[in-house]
């Protein structure tokens, strides 16, 4: 039955023009290298202290300077974008429906090969310590497998087109796990060796998740 | 919101010259300020870096040798500092806590440390309005409540007035802003005084400063309302009460929505009772409002809008949990008749365990062919009530969308022409 | 008036809207006499000024603690503390420990799930009474 | 052949002869023989050596979605209760863009349960899904007299007089039957005299409550609290 439903919508030729709000394309935060912070290129991997560099001379920032959420974001020349495929028809018609649905959206982001099903405001604990980031850095996550609302799911093959959504995460810090002890002992030998381990993990907070409302504008 | 020429009179808040009263236009005039008995150091508050007033220092000669090895941390402490009710503004420049707080909130360099230090002095610590944060807190509260009420009215135009009050208090009320101030790492000093570190929040637990904060008029029948069962309608709350629909009371004493919090004898002495917690909560909330007022005074309207959006409007509040119904089925029927829908009919969608100890009935409320809401319960009656409650919530929680435009967006330069927003005709008034 | 309102308090999440560094103060204790504090004294002279300048939102309190091992204590917004004894450590090792204090959030160390959320589930909690059932 | 997932209809009557054993596969036969409990040789879910094939359910069709080379949006409404933030199509104001853009009504209604989708959904789907009318009404007090609005002022006066004069014989039910209106209407028009209420309702009611033990009283209070919690949305 759901197939029929879907077909009836696809033939829906009525122009679905919900009140569209321009995607803030003005913000030229280049798509960062997958999952590393835009400021990472400016710091070597084993540089430990957080360098508060002066942001490069961008166009004069608007008078209200306190951008509370992004204290140290520098733009780096984004590497070559994958060739822009055209957006398929089914996505073009149903994406406004997906974006307009109330009740929030979820996204399955890929960070270093692990997928996390997150919504806006979730806190993600990565299984590794991300080098070269300090608390407060903003990451642009552009690898997603699925993006959906209550009734619609946009499935990527294998990844969803980056232009269809904006997902940002803030590095909130580095937590470590409680001390673990590995006791190494052989039978009939009294010597026991204790190996202590306490790994560190980076914690992200998904600060922003926006689904692009108007597909045509994205392609322009 | 009552119209207020906010920008005109915040300028004079800061350069509080003694001639003009600090905040004209507040409903109840502030207590006539008692000019400070001029001790050897005269105090004056100015936005620009305070010019050097040479407070008298202990001369270093008669200091014992052991003190030389560990010199006092705070050299700038003048001898007579403890006689002043709050620390001198110049000391703000030497307080590491204050500089840390300023950097932690990524405040703009246009906001001087003296103003931030002033935001940390509560009216109960220093009654002189030129040195406490009551003026800034008043400006901050006006802005926070304006942006919060605008956000709610644009995103949920059909919210009933009582629920809107509860949502406003949940977002911009004292308990919420107290948590925001705590999350900023603002610490409170044990007792106020001139010798306290300017980076600590100073308020006194005993003498409650009588700073009137907010709009609203003192009702003459306030004690009748509290003692007897007088009814306080929503219309009278809109006109007479403060921004959250609570009774405004003249003597500041701690009021929880009307009932008189009389601390018993035992309460007053033991630390941490409800009265003291409420005083501390109010002080932290006022300090947060004062910081918002300072951001507005120094950085302007757009800066304070993004500050409030980042710190207050980004907090989550579950609106569907704010509703309490009395006759849901009756109210839904009145709603359908008012909107000329077909009368609501409850239908059984699915059920299990009808004869068992724990039955589940899923009931849907239909108006003609359209399904309005659905609820599940252990009995048919409860399921029907729940379904009609969910239908009413679905009506009241209608939202045009997350990115609906707000009137304050029109103040930006390149704002597109305003499209009329959806305004609801009002909630259902039923018996 | 049929509808009454219940009172709740909104909850804030650090990072959504505004990010605030959780470490607000680091106490650094040293001793002029003790040999174990040699690294700490060198750190205070050489690396601490730059580190403190790079983190204006953290308050640094440097005070002597005679005849005791040197220690760095981080104070956090949730009121908890983390103390790290840096006895016999080199300045750069102490710098690493200070960064550990800066990055930490002050919460008790525990194993948590990868994703923690307080939002309602977007697609709702499964219930047998809805949907078409699964055709076998 | 679709068979909804129900318990296999293994008849468990004792009279089955050992022939049932031979039909099952050889491996389980040995196991069945060794276990006295299976003398009846009937294979049920309750027995330990149940047949694994019954649990072998094919994966959900969406897993076989065509691995098309491009992104695609699928429409898969969840089987869960609808949330109150999904405004039914009927409640959308006229000016709402979603209504103006002529979204098909059942798309939004579908965020409820497709099984009981709105009959306005496309025709071929309504053949299987029951429409709203087929569903049984709940607690419908189709009291035929309820909607009789033909009573005049004199009737009401008459009803009051009768009621106050002799509350015992002219009970609310008899008056309702006599004037052809609902019981609720009679009670709205007239209230029995105080002493009658006292004698018939208040005193026996209080007497009954005194006889209640603590358990029953707490149960009644719990029921009252449950209703309050329900009205607050906590239940």
Automatic annotation (TrEMBL), chain A:
Residue ranges, compositional bias (Low complexity): 69-87
Gene Ontology terms: cellular component: mitochondrial large ribosomal subunit
Alphabetical keyword list: Ribonucleoprotein, Ribosomal protein
TM regions (residue ranges): none
Alphabetical list of SUPFAM superfamilies matching this protein: L21p-like
Keyword Ribonucleoprotein (UniProt): yes
Biased amino acid composition, Pro residues: 56-68
Disordered: annotated segments: 48-87
Top-level taxonomic group: Eukaryota
Record-level Gene Ontology MF annotations: structural constituent of ribosome
InterPro entries registered for this protein in UniProt: bL21-like, bL21-like_sf
Pfam families in the record: Ribosomal_L21p
Protein family (similarity comment): Belongs to the bacterial ribosomal protein bL21 family.
Protein name as catalogued: Large ribosomal subunit protein bL21m
Organism: Podospora australis
TrEMBL record, chain B:
A Gene Ontology term for the protein's cellular component: mitochondrion
PROSITE patterns in the record: RNASE_3_2 (PS50142)
UniProt keyword list: Mitochondrion, Ribonucleoprotein, Ribosomal protein, RNA-binding
Subcellular location, record wording: Mitochondrion
Domain of life of the native organism: Eukaryota
Annotated GO biological process: RNA processing
Family in the record: Belongs to the ribonuclease III family. Mitochondrion-specific ribosomal protein mL44 subfamily.
Protein name: Large ribosomal subunit protein mL44
Lineage: Eukaryota, Fungi, Dikarya, Ascomycota, Pezizomycotina
TrEMBL record, chain C:
Pfam families reported for this sequence: L51_S25_CI-B8 (PF05047)
InterPro entries per UniProt: Ribosomal_mL43 (IPR039927), Ribosomal_mL43/mS25/NADH_DH (IPR007741), Thioredoxin-like_sf (IPR036249)
Top-rank lineage group of the source organism: Eukaryota
GO cellular component: mitochondrial large ribosomal subunit
Subcellular location: Mitochondrion
Ribonucleoprotein among keywords: yes
GO biological process, one term: mitochondrial translation
Keywords in alphabetical order: Mitochondrion, Ribonucleoprotein, Ribosomal protein
UniProt keyword annotation of DNA damage present: no
Similarity comment: family membership: Belongs to the mitochondrion-specific ribosomal protein mL43 family.
PANTHER family for the chain: 39S RIBOSOMAL PROTEIN L43, LARGE RIBOSOMAL SUBUNIT PROTEIN ML43
Name of the protein in question: Large ribosomal subunit protein mL43
Source species: Podospora australis
Automatic annotation (TrEMBL), chain D:
MF terms in GO: structural constituent of ribosome
Composition-biased stretches (Basic and acidic residues): 134-152
GO cellular component, one term: mitochondrial large ribosomal subunit
Comp. bias (Low complexity): 119-133
A Pfam family the protein falls into: MRP-L20
Cited InterPro entries: Ribosomal_mL58
Swiss-Prot/TrEMBL keywords: Ribonucleoprotein, Ribosomal protein
Highest taxon of source: Eukaryota
Keyword Ribosomal protein: yes
Region ranges (Disordered): 116-152
Residue ranges of coiled coil: none
Protein name in UniProt: Mitochondrial ribosomal protein subunit L20-domain-containing protein
Organism in which the protein naturally occurs: Podospora australis
